[in-house]
Write a structure and sequence with these properties.
Shape: flat
Low-confidence stretches: 495-500
Radius of gyration: 25 Å
Number of helices: 15
Helix content: 40-55%
Strand content: 15-25%
Mean pLDDT: 85
Distance between the termini: 58 Å
Structural class: alpha+beta
């Protein structure tokens, strides 16, 4: 059933695209209704297929090729989302299902007439590309021939909660940029850049930006607590996403003032840039939303998906060439409004994030080697005296890895704190003669002004080499991000106050 749904999905999307174009040319309501049903059918087929793939991942059905390549018996179920979204067969399928659902909602927000047909055509066009790439280039349901006892597994680097949050938020944020772009292109094509369009597109812009922003915060945390990752912005897999995040921040937080044709045109351009940048990043990253440390070869499915941002950019350029007539409806856009509580909350969050960034510049790290009962003393950047007493080394066996654990008992200014335990993990395989992949976890102890981190850098040394780091204000990142998201979403449900 899943393979049939996947085979039908691009055909249903193509039918929706063809009938929506025909409806635009003939203004026939019955063709418009047929196009909407094509979009709904394509979305339903994609949802069925991704649901079946997720179930196969959870149940470890290694007769499914995608599951055999990206999971194993030893990968816990809580990391199924990372397994699904780190390869194009699952990532693009999940994007199509979520983007189609958002597209159906945006068709309703577009009202009736040509604008609705334009939105349907744009959404179905994007789905045609994504679903075709999955069905014909990266089919996840290709059966495995022969007996297989276990799958290839998932990179230990991705078996982390922050990596899962990063992938899921990128999926949601990228999918939400499609209805924003479709509504904008439809309104531009039909010269209806009015208040109805403004309200609808602001909601989708806010949802997209919040998700992409949370993904950036999760990525920063993922890198900070992973000794093998190195500098966050040094990895193109995460740095690529800063561009749509920055554009979204401008759209959501900085686009204020009295609406004019020029300002509305700038909003149109920024919506286009955010959509093309987000979908382009997916294409560059081989059609996936998250990658491990191991290098990934360019995926043909990712190259196919590049048609989406390229086509969006070309379409918007052609529509803008229609001239000032396309912006005549911008006079109906009310002056931008300011929601005072939302602005205060968001500004407080930005202050906390800025403080965390400034504090990280004063971080201090110490590489030490401690024997059992050994003591290391140091001062943190805030002037407090710390001592760390080694509690020895222990070996543990967990559900999918074995670990060497080193525990330290910290004390700050003579006051004892909770135990810090860092691990050097070796992930297990079914073949005992094959060494598993290594990974490291970082222990963290935080208060209002300082985060103390402890990790193992060389578990094979005698004694083991450790790294102890003090990062001022690092604990401000999560509450700052939460406040910014709250300040962004509050105006969508609160009553705005008109700017003076």
């Amino acid at each position: 059933m899943a393979r049939m749904a996947l085979a039908l999905a691009p055909l249903m999307a193509l039918w929706g695209l063809v009938t929506s174009i025909a409806a635009l040319r003939t203004s026939r309501a019955d063709l418009a209704a047929t196009a909407w049903r094509g979009l709904a059918a394509a979305t339903a087929c994609a949802a069925i297929a991704v649901g079946a793939l997720a179930w196969a991942m959870v149940t470890h059905d290694f007769t499914v090729g995608f599951v055999a390549e990206n999971s194993s018996w030893h990968v816990p179920v809580r990391y199924a989302a990372a397994s699904l979204l780190h390869a194009p067969g699952g990532a693009l399928l999940a994007w199509a299902a979520l983007a189609g659902t958002a597209g159906l909602a945006s068709v309703g927000a577009a009202g009736s007439g040509p604008s609705r047909m334009w939105v349907t055509a744009i959404v179905t066009g994007a789905l045609v590309v994504a679903l075709s790439a999955v069905a014909y280039v990266a089919d996840p349901f290709v059966p495995v021939t022969g007996a297989i006892g276990d799958g290839a597994g998932l990179s230990p680097d991705l078996q982390r909660g922050a990596a899962v949050a990063y992938a899921v938020c990128l999926l949601v944020g990228t999918a939400a940029t499609l209805p924003a772009f479709a509504l904008t292109a439809g309104a531009l094509a039909t010269a209806t850049l009015d208040e109805r369009w403004s309200r609808a597109v602001r909601v989708w812009n806010a949802v997209a930006w919040c998700a992409l922003f949370v993904a950036a915060v999760a990525a920063a945390r993922w890198f900070a607590l992973n000794p093998l990752r190195g500098p966050w912005l040094g990895d193109p897999a995460t740095a690529l996403w800063l561009f749509p995040v920055a554009v979204g921040a401008w759209l959501v937080h900085l686009d204020a003032g009295r609406s004019t044709a020029e300002r509305v045109l700038m909003r149109v351009l920024l919506v286009t840039v955010m959509f093309t940048a987000a979908t382009g990043a997916v294409s560059v990253l081989s059609g996936a939303f998250v990658q491990g440390i191991a290098p990934h070869r360019p995926s043909p499915a990712g190259v196919w998906f590049a048609i989406v941002p390229a086509g969006a950019f070309l379409l918007q350029a052609l529509l803008i060439r229609r001239g000032r007539r396309s912006l005549s409806g911008s006079r109906a856009v009310a002056s931008d409004s300011v929601h005072a509580p939302g602005a205060w909350i968001a500004h407080a969050g930005f202050i906390l994030l800025l403080g965390a960034v400034i504090g990280s510049a004063f971080a201090a790290s110490h590489d030490v080697a401690l024997a059992d009962a050994g003591i290391f003393r140091a001062k943190d950047p805030l002037g407090h005296q710390w001592s760390f007493t080694s509690q020895g080394v222990s070996t543990l066996r967990r559900e999918n890895f074995g670990s060497v654990t080193i525990s330290l008992l910290p004390s700050r200014d003579g006051s004892r704190g909770p135990m810090l335990s860092a691990e050097a993990r070796s992930y297990v395989t079914d073949d005992p003669s094959v060494a598993g992949q290594e990974a490291f976890t970082t222990a963290a102890l935080g208060n209002a002004f300082l985060e103390t981190r402890f990790s193992i850098t060389d578990p094979d040394a005698s004694p083991e080499k450790l790294r102890i780091s003090f990062v001022p204000l690092a604990t401000w990142i999560l509450p700052g991000a939460l406040l910014i998201v709250m300040g962004t979403l509050v105006p969508l449900v609160g009553r705005p106050r008109k700017a003076a």
